[in-house]
Amino acid sequence: MTVLLAESFAERGARERARALLDAGSFRELIGPFERLSSPYLATQGVVPQSDDGTVVARGTIGAQRACVVATDGRFLGGSIGEIGGSKIAGALELARRDFERGSPTRMVLALDTGGIRLQEANLGILAVAEICDAIVALRLVMPVVAVIAGRVGVYGGLALSTSLCSTIIVSEGARIGLNGPDVIETESGLDEMDSSDRPLIWRVTGGRMRHEQGFASEIVPDDVAAIRSAVERAFADPHPLPALEAPAFPDPRLERDAFLRALGIEP
Asked: Which of 90, 102, 109, 135 is the most exposed place for a label (fewest CB within 10 A)?
C-alpha cells in the first residue's frame, strides 16, 4: 500500500515557499539576508530587525518560463509590511513590467502571509502599500499577477487591498482574508461584533472557503505544495485578462462650492 503525504505549504517559511513555487534548481534570491537590508526604525523601538525585513524576492522559472516569487514571512512581526519590505515588493512588480517591455515576460507570484501595515512604520507602510497597488495595476495590464494566500497568518489590512487587485487569487482552506483582523475588530467594536477567540467564527467570516464561495478567490486548493504549484501553473496557462481599472470621474469641487454659495444667495 502506498501512502501519499501532503507537503504543507503553510508550515514553510517565506524562503521555502518561494523555493517550492519555482522550478527545482532555479531559485535565486534577490536582495537576500546577506545584503543586510533591514528596517532602520525597529531597533530604536525595542524590536530586533530581521536582515531581509521579512520579505523574500526570488527569481527563477515556473513551468520553464521566467518567473519571480515574492513571499512575506508571517513569523516576523506577523508578516507586517514596512518601508523596506514594501519597497522590495513594489520594486519586483515594477521590474516584471519592465521585463515585459524588454520582450522578456516574467511570471509574477505574490505568496502573502501578512497582518498588514507594520505599526512601527505606520505612514511608511501606508506609502509602501500604495506603491504596491500601483505596481500591480500597471503589471496586470500586460501580465497576470497571481496571489497565493496559504500561510498561517492570512492576509489583512493594506495587503488585502493589494490582493484584491491581482488577476488570480489562490487560497487554501486555512487561509484568511480581511481588511481588519479579528483582534482589531474586537478591540474597536466589542465582543458583540467579533470574538477573536472564536476560531470557527473567524473562518466562517474570513476563511478561504468563504472567500471562494463569495467569488473573491479564484480557486481553493489543499494546503499542499504540489496542489498549489499546479494551481499557479494553471493561472498562467489559462489567464483571465482584466480590463484596465478606471477611476470614477469626481465632480469639480469648485462647482460644488459655487452651487453651495448660490444656495445661500451669494454670487461666487
From this structure: 102
User: For residue 245, what are the contacts with CB-CB under 8 A and spacing of at least 6?
Assistant: 137, 165
Is 158 in contact with 126 (CB distance < 8 Å)? yes
CATH 3.90.226.10 is held by the domain 14-263: yes
Q: How far is CA 32 from CA 27, 29, 117, in A?
A: 12, 6, 21
Angle 182-186-188 from CA coordinates, rounded to 5°: 115
> 88: closest CA among 112, 119, 64, 122?
112
* pTM of the entire predicted model: 0.84
- Residue 232 CB contacts under 8 Å (≥ 6 apart), including other chains: 21, 62, 109, 146, 148, 170
Q: Residue 180 in contact with residue 156, Cβ under 8 Å?
A: yes
DSSP label at 214? Answer: T
Q: Which residues pair with 55 in a beta bridge?
A: 72
Please provide the distance, in angstroms rounded to a whole number, between the alpha carbons at the two ends of the chain.
86
Per-residue pLDDT reduced to its tens digit, 217-256: 999 999 999 999 999 999 998 876 555 555 555 556 555 6
Q: Which residues pair with 186 in a beta bridge?
A: none
With b meaning 16 or more CB within 10 Å and e meaning fewer, what string describes 134-172? ebbbebbbebbbbbbbbbbbbbbbbbbbbbebbbbbbbb
Q: Are 201 and 150 in contact (CB under 8 A)?
A: no
Is residue 203 within 8 A of residue 195, CB to CB? The reply is: no
- The CA distance from 227 to 232, in Å, is 9
Q: What is the pLDDT of residues 41-69, one digit of tens each?
A: 999 999 999 999 999 999 999 999 999 99
